[in-house]
Structure formats: structure tokens, C-alpha cells
Amino acid sequence: MPSAQQLLGLIKSHAQGDEDRFVALTVQMAASEERKGHIRLAEQLRSLAEEASRRNSTKAAKGKTVPIVAPRGELAQLVSASYPKTRLSHMILDPETNSGLRRIVKEHWQRWKLQEHGLAPRNKLLLVGPPGSGKTMTASALAGETGLPLFTVLLHGVITKYMGETAAKLRLVFDAIAETKGVYLFDELDALASQRGAGNDVGEARRALNSFLQFLDEDHNDSLLVATTNHPELLDKALFRRFHLIMEYKIPSGTLLIDTIRARLAMFPLDSIEWDLVVEAGAGLSSAEIIRAAEDAARDAVIEDRVAPETSDLLAALRARHTTFRLG
Ligand SMILES: Nc1ncnc2c1ncn2[C@@H]1O[C@H](COP(=O)(O)OP(=O)(O)O)[C@@H](O)[C@H]1O
Ligand SMILES: [Mg+2]
């Protein structure tokens, strides 16, 4: 059982409306119960703490996001805000990437536990990989999992619209968001970095990149920073060092390819599909392309009043995607 002191602290934090402390104490209590071997009680306490913390951050976000949700003037062209409901379970990822992301979410929820030991959760991620592999979707899923708002920084707008003032514009964005907890997505970061060495505007691009690097070094309390790129070779080495975790997204093959199709076609019986042939036909396509091909195959089956897509539907759809892919 929790000690009288723990109970008093808990009630006091509640009475004072100190919700962060309430969560921290609950997590502490969970840890001490765990040490006593009360595993089940510890688990219950932890999940209650996560629930309370989720509610707090949603509340805090709602209270604070007003200036960004309704950005005025320049800011409106630099940042967009949303509240995605996407979850990691909606994504088909290789086991390593999946567990890496789940771990990040866990560190976010259990940050009190880390902080008690002088540690901080890892919160700066770089997602690297080909188009259509789920990098942008991952940022939404992280927002969905943490209950934080998703702020997408429109890098392309930052650079092309405000050439000559890029660094100042970035600063404007960073100042506006410094106060607000959220998942910050710097999508296709190479747009920023590749400006470096682009001849005419090298100095300008360097200033922009330096602002960005400084931002990464600042304290972001409980926010998550997610940057993505299709072209890691364009990014400066200095940039890589500033991320806590670099995740590589790949083109799905083998079981991952099968899982991607199965997930999209979950409502159909797929017992007679010859998966070997499907895997071969889908090789080289991105997750996004494979999902679209699965939908094409399903449409054919439905329109032709068949119970489920067949191997031939899938093969045709995947091969057609290959052609579009190459032309595009
Ligand atoms: N790993 C994945 N799992 C589930 N759906 C995916 C995955 N990758 C891509 N998709 C689908 O394809 C769409 C485009 O993916 P996106 O996240 O924009 O890719 P990227 O940012 O890597 O180019 C997503 O909105 C989603 O519908
Ligand atoms: Mg993307």
C-alpha cells in the first residue's frame, strides 16, 4: 500500500490544482509499488498517470495554441496546425522502426520517471527514406499517440517566399511556437539544407540553416521535433548530430509487403492469394503505392461482384503502379 505521506502529497497536489505534480507523484508511487512486487497495482497507477497526463497536455495545448491555430499575417503562411487522430497502429512498419517509435512515445508519457533520474526523453527525430514510406504520416501518428497538436512548418514557404529574410522568418516561427507544446514537423528538410552551396544564395541559406540548428539546440520541454528527408546526402553532417534518433524508412519487401496489403484489405478473405507472386510484382514500390494498388484490386473485385480480390487483380494493379511509378 502507498504510504500516508504519498497519499497526503497526492491529495495536496490535487487540492492545489497542480496537475503536473499529481502525475509525477502517481508515477513515483507506481515505481515504489513495483519495487515492493505489486506489479499489477504499479501498472494500474502508471496507466492512470498516462491518462491524466494526456488530459493535461490536451488541455494545455487547447489553451495555448490559439495564436498558432489562428495565425495572423506572416505566420499563417509559415505554420499550419492540426489535431490528427492517426495512431501508430494504423501504420505498417518494419518491427525495428515500429518499436523505435513506440519507445519514443513511451519516453514522452513516462518523462516524469526519466526526469526523476536526471534524464530527459528523446524528442528530436530525423526520418530518412524514399517518398511514400510513411514519414509524414509518422509525425501525425506521434501527435495522435501523444495527444499533442501537430504543427507543420512550411519550409518551402519559408524559403521561397521570403528569400533574403529566411532566418528571420524561421525565428518568427520558433518564437511563436516556443511556448506551445506540440509535435513540430519540419517536412522535407532538404529543401532548407540543399540551398546551401546553391551558388547565389549561399550566405542566406547558411544563416537559415544556422537558425534551424540553434532551434534544435534550444530547450523544447515536452515537445517532439520531427524532421524528414528523402535526400539525406544533401543534409549537413552537423544536422545529423543534433537529432536523438535517426530512423530509416524503406521500401517494403517480403512479409512487410504482404502485411501492407493485408492491412488495407482486412475486410476481404485472402486465403487463396499466391503471396509469392504478389511479393515479386510489388517489389520496388513504396508503401503508399502498394496501398493504392491494393485498393485498385479491391475496386475491381467489388465492381465485378466477386467476394474478394484475386491474385490476378493484385498482380495487374501492382504492375500498373510500376508503370505509373516509372513514368512519374
Ligand atoms: N508505412 C505506412 N503504413 C501505412 N500507410 C502508409 C505507410 N506509408 C505510406 N502510407 C500511406 O501513404 C500515404 C503517403 O505517405 P507519407 O507519409 O506522405 O509518405 P512520405 O512522407 O514518406 O513521403 C500516407 O498518408 C498513408 O496513407
Ligand atoms: Mg512526406
List the helices and strands and how they pair.
Layout: H1 4-15, H2 19-35, H3 39-64, H4 66-69, E1 79-82, H5 95-109, H6 111-116, E2 124-128, H7 135-146, E3 150-153, H8 155-161, H9 166-178, E4 183-186, H10 190-193, H11 202-217, E5 224-229, H12 237-241, E6 245-248, H13 254-264, H14 275-282, H15 287-303, H16 311-327
Parallel strand pairs: 2-5, 2-6, 3-4, 4-5
Antiparallel strand pairs: 1-3
Bound molecules: adenosine-5'-diphosphate and magnesium ion (MG).
Structure description:
It contains 16 helices and 6 strands. With 328 residues, the protein is of the alpha/beta class. The chain folds into 3 domains: 4-63, no CATH class; 65-248, Rossmann fold; 254-327, Helicase, Ruva Protein, domain 3, CATH 1.10.8. Helix 13 packs across helix 15 (287-303) and helix 15 (287-303) crosses helix 16 (311-327). It is globular and about 70 Å long. 34% of the residues are buried. The model is unreliable at 63-68 (pLDDT under 50). Bound molecules: adenosine-5'-diphosphate (ADP) and magnesium ion (MG). The site of magnesium ion has 4 residues, from helix 7.
